[in-house]
Amino acid sequence: MAGVESAQSDVHFDAVVVGAGFAGLYMLYRLRQQGLRVRVFEAGTGVGGTWYWNRYPGARCDVESMEYSFGFDEELQQEWEWRERYAGQPEILRYANHVADRFELRCDIELETRVEAAHFIESNGIWQLRTTSENGRAVWTAQFCIMATGCLSSANTPDFEGLGDFKGDLLHTGHWPKEEPDLSDRRVGIIGTGSSAIQAIPILAERCGELFVFQRTANYSIPARNHPLDPEEQAAIKATYSEFREANKRMSSGFGSKRRLGDRSALEVSGKERDEEFEQRWEEGGFGFLGGYTDFLVNEDSNQLAAEWVRGRIREIVRDPQVADLLCPEQVIGCKRICLDTGYFETFNRDNVHLVDVSGTAIERITPRGVVAGGRGFELDTLILATGFDAMTGTLLRIDVRGRGGRTLGEKWEEGPKTYLGLGIEGFPNLFTITGPGSPSVLTNMIVSIEQHVEWIDECIGFLRLHGHQTIEATRQAEEEWVDHVNGLAARTLYPTCNSWYLGANIPGKPRVFMPHIGFPPYVEKCNEVASRGYEGFELGSPSFG
Ligand code: NA7
Fold first, then answer.
1. Pocket test for ligand 1, best of 53, 56, 154, 387 (most atoms within 8 A of CB)
2. Per-residue burial over 466-475, b = 16 or more CB atoms within 10 Å of its CB, e = otherwise
């Protein structure tokens, strides 16, 4: 990037943060507390990250609101009143804005500013970033570059033949317009049946004329049983909020400590006992459904018992047996992230909802007037892509990130992402990734993982400054061992058995590598150990950079 290298820096900061979602907001807050000059760049017109972009009808968090919220500030967690068991997108976005206002963060955030490139300049050991905004291009420099770019922030638009020719309204759940599109009496098609589609479909079906759901893979979904939060229940949690947060951090996924966890294999109990357990958990709703037994994600026989039980429920709910069959997933349950819904399967009993199976035939092409699939044409006024994200690495790789010797991150990650702890990358000194690949991130309550990473990075930078180190960089050996460790954990589970976005399998050509680290508590222990040993596995540069 000779252009950037030769360009004059507009302003120099101690640290730049890319993204103003929850990770970027908290990172800014922490670094400012230790006196750093920080600038955050955000492509959106507002803060909130994933909750800014994903405003499709029905968008809702699948982790309960009393848990999916910051715990770093006692006053903040006491004053904010959540309205529902699972908060909807508008409420979470209000919360993100409240955090930005409450801690006066906005003055250090550049909105509508996209980071195009981030290059490490070896001669003076700084990062140089190129941004574009309405005001044109700008160049910034900083000692530390922190990627708070989120795990699900690069929307995936499949390369459907003829997509550009479609004459109706084309929407993507991950880039939903701020002004709600009018769907009344319209013929609407939605491609995809992942979490976004499963949340949106029941609402779209009520709003539109006819709804055509193009399904490639049926998905498991458990009722969310969302409901207004009982003020007494909320007050009870708040009375011992810190203890509640700590209990959640001891859970493998960083949430769900309220729910009872089973301590046996599903194969060790009678069919009757298992049915009762499933029934009770189905009625409770939420991810706790798979918590009754210990081995669903490691033992295929055990997994099949849960999978078959859910398929039974789908067949009970959906009146047309052929439609019900198509809606019954075949893969391991929990292998793809389980969805939580409100009336998803029931929606297929409506006369205006049509399920189109594209598992064998694929979407053939998009025409100016609709979709052709399985040799049939479907005329549509609106086409919605609910086709997910280039998860965990997509956003980082869309930025022209270059480390030592001008090596691009794309080159470094050609065979899949390689990081140390999901926090640092060999060859990219002073670059941190919040909830990067190789960390628990998407297998946990994201806010808990964000807090843990932000605090670790903040303390690390504090340590470097205190001891006069100019740089920190993961060693190749530590990184290789970490990648092997993360792969090894996944290989012992059923996760690699299906085409999930955890594996990158939803994106054609993406290396098939299981990206998140399984298990939050041992991960945190490792991070703390690394720090307490003077950042073991990292090389710390001396004050005179060379
Ligand atoms: P997901 O879960 O990745 O779902 C995307 C859906 O789109 C899924 O059903 C895909 O089918 C389908 N898809 C993707 N590409 C195609 C093509 N080319 N043809 C047909 N169908 C396609 O994304 P979401 O946005 O729903 O959810 C992402 C996460 O956000 C979710 O896990 C929560 O954590 C929140 P496939 O299954 O690949 O056959």
1. 387
2. eeebbbbbbe
